[in-house]
Each structure stands twice: as C-alpha cells, then as structure tokens.
C-alpha cells in the first residue's frame, strides 16, 4: 500500500470545522457547545462527533466556547499517552496539551465551564438527543448528567444533536477522499470474502477474510453482519459471535448475506453483500434484479434540491411494483446517520413471525431533508421472492451534478469464486 496515497486532514480543515461551529453557536445564541463522545472499545464509536472537532481518539468530552479554543476532557491517562506519543512522532495535533483535561467526570466538566465563565447562559449539548438506531434517547449517563444539572442550575442546556449532525453532513474537499478511501477498503473486504467463499468453508473463514483485509489496509472496521443458508433472512452479527455454537459450514446452493462496514479518518461507508454459492434458487437472481432497479431509481433521484423523501419514494416504486417482500429500509444517510427510509412492515409476513411482537410499517424519518452537495447516503435495497432474498447497494455522495456512486462491486448479487 502506497502511504503517499493515504489522505489526511490539514489544519485548514480544522479551521473550517471550527468556523462552522462558531457560526452555529452565533446563529443559535449559544455561549458554548458541550459534546459527549462514545468510546471505541466495541469497535469504531457510533456517536463520535467529538472526533469531528478534535481529529483525535474517540471517547472524549469537548467543551467548545463560542469565544476561544475547545477544551477536551479525556477518559484517562492512556489518552494522554496516545497524544504524547503522537507528538513525539511529529504528528500535527489539533488540540494542544494545554487544552486537555485528564478526566471527564461531572466535577471536571463543571469546573471547566466555571473556569470559562460558562456557569450561566446557554449551552448546546450533543449527547442528549436521539442517535439512531442504537441510541434513540441519547448517550449521556444519567448520573453524570444529573450531577451537571445540579451543579449548574443557572445554565440553560439545549439539545443540539440534530443541528450539529446537519452541520457535519456536507463533506469538504478534504473529507471526500476519506470516504473514497473507506469505500476502497470496504470493496477490498468484500472481494476477499468472495474469493474465500465456497462449499465446505466456514462462515468464520469468510468473516476473517473480510475483516483481515480491512485491518491490512490500515483501518478499524466495525463488526460486519453476516448470515448464510439456503434462504436466510437474518441481519446482524453471526450467532456464533455471541452464542456458544460452532460457525456454520457453507454448502452448494447457499447464499451469504453481509453488511460490511468500513471507515477511514472518521468517515464511514457501508456495503451490502449477497454472495451465491454454486447453484442457488433462481428467485435470488429475480430478487436481485428488483433490488438493482430500486438502487438505480434512487441514484437517479439523488440530486441537489430534491429531498431524501423523494429518493425513498423513487426506490420503493420498483419494490412496490412486484409481489415479493422487503424487510428493511432501502436507504439512510451516513456521515451522519440521521435520515432513514420507510418500512413496509413485511417482517410480520414471514412464517413464524406471528409468535413475535408485530413489526409495523413506519414512515420515512427526515423525509424533508433537502439534498446538498457533499451529503452521503447508503442505498441498500433488498427484495425477496418466497423467502429468497437479495440485498445490494453501497454508499453514494451528492454532488452538484451526477452523484458519486462508490462500491460498484456490491450493486449486484455476487458469485463465489470457488
């Protein structure tokens, strides 16, 4: 891998982001932003807006005053060691040591706010609002936040999760190469899985091949979703990741479903994978054709000035024109994950679903979001005939004209090499 080709972020990008932040605070009449980040021990942090401000390791709490530099609270001493070692190696850090704090307890956070004269006034908070799909009611620990409120009775705290997410959505000229790099890595992960798959191969070998390729290319991929079988419908990490059982061995006529997640420099891509092993049922190919029609309908609609709802409706037109089923949403935003497509509730039509809580249809979330150049979306239509399901798609970027369609590999059902 040629290190010269690896994109990086400059201090000009830092200045752009910080200027946008100050403009947001001025517009919203805020004296500061308080940004809580999720830690990365289970993989890349899902709620990591702190890294957008810091370009550092996720899991910190950022206090960003409207007038002045951000102060970054660290979870512990290991973060100081990381920062120190990066400095020794000549890395250019956005946050100097003088603006780091060694703890992010409620006492430390409130001390910083008082030190900055922010123990009154208006403070926007990232961490109180919904972060779909895993944190519908925020990420803030109850005890920590209760103590902050008790210590600062004169502060008006306002939820700013959506406003900050929207602020980060239009990628800059320096950020688009990060997404391209992420997609290249994700495609390589998928190709490694295709090259490894075949009868007699364990699911664990397929999983290892994909994840190892991501690590080999210099990033930390999130745990992929992967299931296999003659007609599987599951969507998530394999059962052997959390249950005491052996990984399944592939057979001729199986399919593999996977969602491959890649990221580089805090910018993410997603890759929808269906791999046919040998001679699979013809309905998989029929379903793949419908899913491809949906993907291309969404791509044709992804233009500045249109809405996310327009894209979702365009993608559902071919899905609704056939007599099969769709179990999950067809599209969502990424970088940041805010908007999500509608669901038809077809899960309740599956044999055996009557024993489970009903899954109801739901409308598109943030259907009115107007598309702007630099926004990223995942077009991920799936379709099934008689339980034979195909899932295709990947990440796309809105531009002034034609969208950038990344991950050409996963726009169709793939065949195993063996």
From TrEMBL:
<dbReference type="InterPro" id="IPR050659">
    <property type="entry name" value="Peptidase_M24B"/>
</dbReference>
<keyword id="KW-0378">Hydrolase</keyword>
<keyword id="KW-0645">Protease</keyword>
<dbReference type="InterPro" id="IPR036005">
    <property type="entry name" value="Creatinase/aminopeptidase-like"/>
</dbReference>
<protein>
    <submittedName>
        <fullName>Xaa-Pro aminopeptidase</fullName>
    </submittedName>
</protein>
<dbReference type="Pfam" id="PF00557">
    <property type="entry name" value="Peptidase_M24"/>
</dbReference>
<dbReference type="InterPro" id="IPR000994">
    <property type="entry name" value="Pept_M24"/>
</dbReference>
<dbReference type="GO" id="GO:0004177">
    <property type="term" value="F:aminopeptidase activity"/>
</dbReference>
<dbReference type="InterPro" id="IPR029149">
    <property type="entry name" value="Creatin/AminoP/Spt16_N"/>
</dbReference>
<feature type="domain" description="Peptidase M24">
    <location>
        <begin position="179"/>
        <end position="400"/>
    </location>
</feature>
<keyword id="KW-0031">Aminopeptidase</keyword>
């Amino acid at each position: 891998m040629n290190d010269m080709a690896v994109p990086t972020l400059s201090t000009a990008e830092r200045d752009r982001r910080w200027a946008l932040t100050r403009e947001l605070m001025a517009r919203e009449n805020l004296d500061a932003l308080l940004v809580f980040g999720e830690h990365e021990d289970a993989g890349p942090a899902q709620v990591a807006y702190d890294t957008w401000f810091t370009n550092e390791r996720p899991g910190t709490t950022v206090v960003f005053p409207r007038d002045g530099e951000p102060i970054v609270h660290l979870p512990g001493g290991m973060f100081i060691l990381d920062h120190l070692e990066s400095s020794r190696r000549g890395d250019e850090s956005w946050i100097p040591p003088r603006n780091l704090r060694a703890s992010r307890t409620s006492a430390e956070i409130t001390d910083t706010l008082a030190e900055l004269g922010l123990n009154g006034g208006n403070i926007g908070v990232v961490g109180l609002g919904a972060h779909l799909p895993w944190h519908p009611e925020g990420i803030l620990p109850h005890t920590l936040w209760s103590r902050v409120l008790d210590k600062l009775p004169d502060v008006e705290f306002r939820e700013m999760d959506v406003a900050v997410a929207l602020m980060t959505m239009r990628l800059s000229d320096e950020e688009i190469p990060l997404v391209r790099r992420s997609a290249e890595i994700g495609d390589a992960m998928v190709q490694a899985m295709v090259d490894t798959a075949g009868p007699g191969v364990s699911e664990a070998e397929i999983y290892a091949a994909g994840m190892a390729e991501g690590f080999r290319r210099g990033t930390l991929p999130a745990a992929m979703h992967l299931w296999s079988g003659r007609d599987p419908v599951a969507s998530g990490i394999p059962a052997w990741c959390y249950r005491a059982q052996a990984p399944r061995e592939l057979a001729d006529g199986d399919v593999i479903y996977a969602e491959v997640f890649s990221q580089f420099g805090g910018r993410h891509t997603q890759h929808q994978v269906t791999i046919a092993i040998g001679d699979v049922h013809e309905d998989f190919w029929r379903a793949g054709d419908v899913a491809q029609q949906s993907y291309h309908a969404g791509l044709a609609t992804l233009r500045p000035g249109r809405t996310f709802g327009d894209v979702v409706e365009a993608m559902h037109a071919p899905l609704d024109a056939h007599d099969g089923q769709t179990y999950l949403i067809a599209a969502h935003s990424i970088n940041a994950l805010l908007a999500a497509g509608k669901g038809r509730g077809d899960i309740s039509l599956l044999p055996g679903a009557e024993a489970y809580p009903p899954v109801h249809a739901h409308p598109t979330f943030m259907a009115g979001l107007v598309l702007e150049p630099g926004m990223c979306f995942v077009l991920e239509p799936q379709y099934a005939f008689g339980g034979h399901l195909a899932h295709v798609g990947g990440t796309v970027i809105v531009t002034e004209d034609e969208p950038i369609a990344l991950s050409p590999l996963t726009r169709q059902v793939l065949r195993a090499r063996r």
